[in-house]
Every structure is written in structure tokens, then in C-alpha cells.
């Protein structure tokens, strides 16, 4: 059930609900990847609220789109989106990472709404390309969207997929890079520089859009706009790790964290203040 916000904007309500659920899941003693889950909350909200057609793992169909969370460590954000849109029970979020739960630290295919188990970084874009090519082969007009972490782009398999996607003209494939500039070992640019990132995608033959990954209008325009025939699209979404969580925004310590009750209340109050 979505919390209250402007009724004309489904994505606004959904983004707020996703963030609240991620904070609530952070009570798990196993920790939640708060940083990466919160940085993609707005991307997930626009995708699930306004862009994707029948995205909830309903099997092959001529009228559906696919979302692959390649950065599987941000599974809490995905679970929150699935719960907020009625795909899984909201109460199930309380079982995050517990023994026997369907909500693992990385998404598993056994969960409704998940087409592929992910989290072995560097594989998601290849999966998305396979889906995009299959949709074209069977005469469907479905699109494949892949959310990638920026640190994940240090995996060479991504660039093999990028080269193949361009060569094969997979214009129904969109790669969304969560450019929050952090990875588990620290700043991406300190670990292994990715810049100039847009130029890298362009050199592989992709259409490239750079956006504010928290601005819903920019996200809509990037994901709903017409594709360029014969070219896949890379959306570089500039985001803030752990956006909305006091003390964790844009820090390494937000990678995996368990918030105590006081910290959760403070984070929820910050979200309320942001909405006001």
C-alpha cells in the first residue's frame, strides 16, 4: 500500500514507499545494502510506476518488459518496489535475509517479479541482451532494462555485452548505470577510474544519456522517450549513495548496514521532512 503524496504522481509516492521499506528492512541483523538500494529508489519508482509493462516475472508474453537488477546487492530496493506494487506481500519484507526467506541478499528467481537470479556482478547486461534479442526474434516489442552499478563496470564481461549489443543493433535494450561513484572498496575513481564514462559507451556504439537519477522528469524522458533505431541506450544516472539517510549519504559505511531503532526513526523523519 503506497503512502500519501501527490495523487497525480505515482512515482513520487512509490519512491517514498520504497525508501521507507528499505529503512525498515535495515533492522535485519544481517545488514542491508542501504546505499545502493536508496540510490536507485527513484529509478525503480519510475520504472515500476510508469514505464514497465507487466514486469512482475509473469513469463513470456508479447506485451511485457523486463527489468534485470544486475547490481543484485541492492536487492532490498527491488523487494521494496515489488511489495509496494503488490507483487509480493508487504509483510514479507520483514523476513529479509532470514533463514528460509525468499528475500535473499541477492535476488533469486524463485521470487515473483524476478526473472533471473543476479548478484554475480558483470552478468546482468549479457542477460539483458539475450532477452532483447529473444524479444526481437519472436516478434515481440518488449524492452529489456538493466540496472548496473558503476563499480560493476570494471568487469570486462559488461563491455563484451556492450560491444555485441551495438553490433547486433539491440535498440530495445537500455542499460541504466547507477553512477553513485562508490563501490565496496571505496570511491570508484580511486579504485579504478571509469571516466570519461559517457565517452566509453559512445565508443562502443551506444546512444548515451546523462541524467540526474533522482529527478523523475529526467528519468521519464530517458526511459519513455523514443529509442534510436539500431542503437542500444545507456542512461548514466548520477545519484547519491544512501540518499535520504542522515549520516550515511555519500559514504562508504552505507554499503551494508544495520540501523538501530533510533537511526531508523531519524531516517524516517528525514524522509518526512523531505516530503514536506
From TrEMBL:
Magnesium found in the keyword field: no
Keyword Transcription regulation part of the UniProt annotation: no
Domain of life: Bacteria
Matches recorded under Gene3D superfamilies: 3.40.50.970
Keyword terms of this UniProt record: Thiamine pyrophosphate
Annotated CDD domains: TPP_TK
Cofactor(s) required for function per UniProt: thiamine diphosphate
Stretches assigned to the Transketolase N-terminal domain: 12-262
InterPro entries assigned to the protein according to its UniProt record, in alphabetical order: THDP-binding, Transketolase_N
Pfam families in the record: Transketolase_N (PF00456)
Similarity annotation: Belongs to the transketolase family.
Protein name listed in UniProt: Transketolase
Natural source organism: Streptomyces cirratus
Amino acid at each position: 500500500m503506497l503512502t500519501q503524496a501527490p495523487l497525480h504522481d505515482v512515482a513520487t509516492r512509490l519512491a517514498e514507499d520504497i525508501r521507507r521499506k528499505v529503512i525498515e528492512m535495515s533492522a535485519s541483523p544481517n545488514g542491508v545494502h542501504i546505499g545502493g538500494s536508496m540510490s536507485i529508489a527513484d529509478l525503480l519508482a519510475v520504472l515500476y510506476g510508469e514505464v514497465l509493462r507487466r514486469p512482475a516475472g509473469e513469463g513470456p508474453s508479447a506485451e511485457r518488459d523486463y527489468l534485470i537488477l544486475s547490481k543484485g546487492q541492492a536487492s532490498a530496493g527491488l523487494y521494496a518496489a515489488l511489495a509496494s506494487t503488490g507483487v509480493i506481500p508487504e509483510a514479507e519484507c520483514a523476513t529479509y535475509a532470514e533463514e528460509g526467506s525468499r528475500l535473499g541478499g541477492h535476488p533469486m528467481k524463485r521470487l515473483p517479479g524476478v526473472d533471473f537470479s543476479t548478484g554475480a556482478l558483470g552478468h546482468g547486461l549479457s542477460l539483458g541482451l539475450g532477452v532483447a534479442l529473444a524479444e526481437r526474434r519472436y516478434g515481440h516489442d518488449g524492452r529489456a532494462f538493466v540496472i548496473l552499478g558503476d563499480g560493476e563496470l570494471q568487469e570486462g564481461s559488461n563491455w563484451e555485452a556492450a560491444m555485441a549489443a551495438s553490433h547486433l543493433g539491440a535498440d530495445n535494450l537500455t542499460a541504466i548505470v547507477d553512477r553513485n561513484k562508490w563501490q565496496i572498496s571505496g570511491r570508484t575513481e580511486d579504485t579504478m577510474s571509469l571516466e570519461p564514462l559517457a565517452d566509453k559507451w559512445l565508443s562502443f556504439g551506444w546512444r548515451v544519456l546523462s541524467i540526474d537519477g533522482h529527478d523523475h522528469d529526467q528519468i521519464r524522458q530517458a526511459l519513455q522517450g523514443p529509442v534510436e533505431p539500431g542503437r542500444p541506450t545507456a542512461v548514466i544516472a548520477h545519484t547519491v549513495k544512501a540518499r535520504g539517510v542522515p549520516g550515511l549519504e555519500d559514504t562508504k559505511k552505507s554499503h551494508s548496514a544495520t540501523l538501530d531503532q533510533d537511526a531508523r526513526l531519524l531516517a524516517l523523519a528525514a524522509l518526512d521532512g523531505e516530503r514536506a
